[in-house]
Amino acid sequence: EDLELSGYEHYMLKEIHEQPDAAAMVLRGRLDERFATARLDGLGLDPRELRSFRRIKILGCGSAYYVGQLGAQLIEDLARIPADAEAASEFRYRQPIIESDTLYVAVSQSGETADTAFAVEEIKRKGGRVIGVVNVVGSTIARTVDGGIYLHAGPEISVASTKALTNMALSFALLALHLGRLHDLSHADGQRILRGLQRIPEQIREILEDADPIAAVAEDIAKAQSAFYIGRVRGFPVAREGAQKLKEISYIHAEAYQTSELKHGPLALIDPHMPTVALIPEDELTDRNLAAAEQILARKGPLIAITHAGVDLAHLDARTIVVPKNEPELDPILLTIPTQLLAYHAAVRLGHDVDKPRNLAKSVTVE
Ligand code: AGP
Fold first, then answer.
1. What is the 3-state composition of the chain as percent helix, strand, coil, each rounded to the nearest 5?
2. DSSP H helical segments within the chain, as ranges?
3. Which residue numbers delimit the SIS domain (predicted)?
4. pLDDT digits (tens, 9 = 90+) for 219-276
5. How far, in Å, is the centroid of ligand 1 from the Cα of 62?
């Protein structure tokens, strides 16, 4: 029954709507209230080993790589361990230095992506420790890694990944919380993140229940030849993923930029035909994000802001999509949901085969 459309027009829409339940599944049994941490029994590493890692390197392809960037940010924020993400497809070819005090994390929905699987092999061959963040149980990557976190997102049919990506982000939040509590994250901050995680499934549901304005905005995007997605720091991986999703299924060219980089070049492209989807969360960078929004509007660029109720956009001629507020570290997970719907509705509007976009496969099992 899981594999049926259950009344939805496309698998992608069905999978978008499965996210509240899928998110609850990845969190289930993993939140330890007493010690304000995450219980991750599958990691296969004891606390002393986990504490010994000086760096975390996340490897994945496409959208999984972008979520990996968010994961690295979460780990740096909560655990204060230097972390970064890299495209697994490039890793093997640049003679990577495999360090014994680095924990490698391979992230993949299918667990069969050849580029990611090869990166895992390369790390293992050189004696590195690698864990997986994987959806498909018993898949190649899941079998090769030393341990890991299963996503429990259920089967994902649509080529454009949605619920698996949300559960990847939640898995990284769990890993970051777990590592944080092994290092210097206080009990109070652990509780703050834990409570934030508990709110996520319901907050995703709220976004999905009030999605009509997002479909209306998608009508405008569908008319464009090209679009920008911009965000800063934690918002940048959201922008990258938003642009990726639009490209994949609507075939509209989209480019993601750090909002701060706009004035260093791409601002030249802003005109009335180039819409910009701007991530403007309520955080320490709100004012800077608003200043960039003003620059876009001054050049007559149509602006779509994905934002929080606490951000005052009344003075700007922007279309707004408001999402519920969570903790700053977790907000990107919720900010991503409207970008899925923007891409979906734009693609439907243009009459494309949403679940099977041209030239793409669900899992890329060749190099
Ligand atoms: C996501 O919408 C894409 N279809 C694609 O980028 C995908 O995330 C990538 O190919 C990695 O797949 P995996 O998670 O199965 O490894």
1. 50, 15, 35
2. 11-17, 19-27, 47-52, 63-79, 88-91, 114-125, 140-144, 163-182, 187-209, 212-222, 235-250, 286-298, 331-349
3. 45-185, 217-357
4. 999 999 999 999 999 999 999 999 999 999 999 999 999 999 999 998 999 999 999 9
5. 5
Give the number of residues written for the chain. 367
* Locus of tokens 């990691």: 43
Please say if the pLDDT value at position 366 is more than 90: no
The ipTM, to two decimals, is 0.98
Give yes or no for residue 165 CB within 6 A of ligand 1: no
Q: How many CA atoms lie within 13 A of 118 on its CB side?
A: 17
CB 216 within 8 A of CB 321: no
CA-closest residue to ligand 1 atom 11: 61
CA–CA gap between residue 255 and residue 261 (Å, rounded): 12
pLDDT digits (tens, 9 = 90+) for 236-247: 999 999 999 999
Q: Please list the active-site residues.
A: 362
123 pocket-lining for ligand 1 (C-beta < 6 Å): no
* Separate counts of helices (H) and strands (E) for the chain: 13, 12
**Six token digits for residue 194:** 């834990």
Q: At what angle do helices 163-182 and 63-79 cross, to 10 degrees?
A: 20
- CB-based burial of residue 350 (10 Å sphere; 0-12 exposed, 13-18 middle, 19+ buried)? middle
110 CA: nearest ligand 1 atom = 15
Ligand 1 centroid from CA 51, angstroms: 30
Which of 198, 118, 182, 150 is CA-nearest to residue 42? Answer: 150
pLDDT digits over 70-118, tens only? 999 999 999 999 999 999 999 989 889 999 999 999 999 999 999 999 9
Q: Is the Cβ–Cβ distance between 50 and 43 less than 8 Å?
A: yes
Specify the pTM: 0.97
* Contacts for 223 with CB less than 8 Å, ≥ 6 apart: none
Comparing CA positions, the residue from 125, 97, 8, 107 lying closest to residue 62 is: 107
Contact 159, 354 (CB under 8 A): no
